[in-house]
């Protein structure tokens, strides 16, 4: 059998979904002078990296966090000639965690490159295996989810996504008790569709409402419909189910990745902002009716333009309207301050910075609403 990432990919495809870590560790022992292997996964709230092979072992430390944040390998050479190599576990820009390998010899560029390739195969396998085993879910959860949060996390597309011309990330707060807020995205060819949704109400009823709206929009999108038809089908579905007693405030965006043109349907409270070189300005759109408020609602698109290097941020009202203890809403000043701190951070880090700022703004008070934030960097026009 051949060596390298191709062979480990074949091994992982043949392995049971819950045994991927052990298969990887055995492959590394057979191929390299490896003393120890560990796979660390990020938790739902992105507060740490947690071990899979030895669940009682320590969480990832500063070096693991540096590897995860930078998305670059980290090599920790030691005086005795051994080394610790850390490589990110990432698939299509979705950051899963870190692979840590302790070797009995110095780690050169060739070994680091081979481990990076292997980590890519493992990340793809882990993401696929999530549908058939609970093992990795158990590692990522540091506390029990509410039923509403369970449904929401299964409905999400992922936490980040990247391509040649964009970087994208989303976050939910509180991670273990979110209910009505949601984001969705899909990239097909030169078109990126992005939606941010704030379902009416709270608890599991808000989540069920969101599930109806999101799946209706997906159904339309996957039939080739544009965002107007997506909004109208979702509105009709919500109205049919709830008769106007519940609705879903939603912002639908379709971004042309070739020229940065954006078509939008603003059907409610999520707000968009554009940041560029430290300057942050709101995207002004004419607000239309939330999905499902009335029967046979019709929608129109509006347009705005992204420039190369622009950062587009979309926040639900749980972010921009948060006013814990009667304070000034977070969106008036504190959100802009938090966004300015993210200028040099990639979208996944930027999202977490703003969410941490939102937690700090509540200063121990329970949030009145859940929150979602999505961050998109449009990198450049095609050559």
Automatic annotation (TrEMBL):
Keyword Phosphoprotein assigned: no
Domain PPM-type phosphatase: 168-378
Protein name: Phosphatase
Record key words, sorted: Hydrolase
InterPro entries hit by this protein: Bact_Sigma-Reg, PPM-type-like_dom_sf, PPM-type_phosphatase-like_dom
Pfam family, one: SpoIIE
GO MF, any single term: phosphatase activity
Keyword Heme (UniProt): no
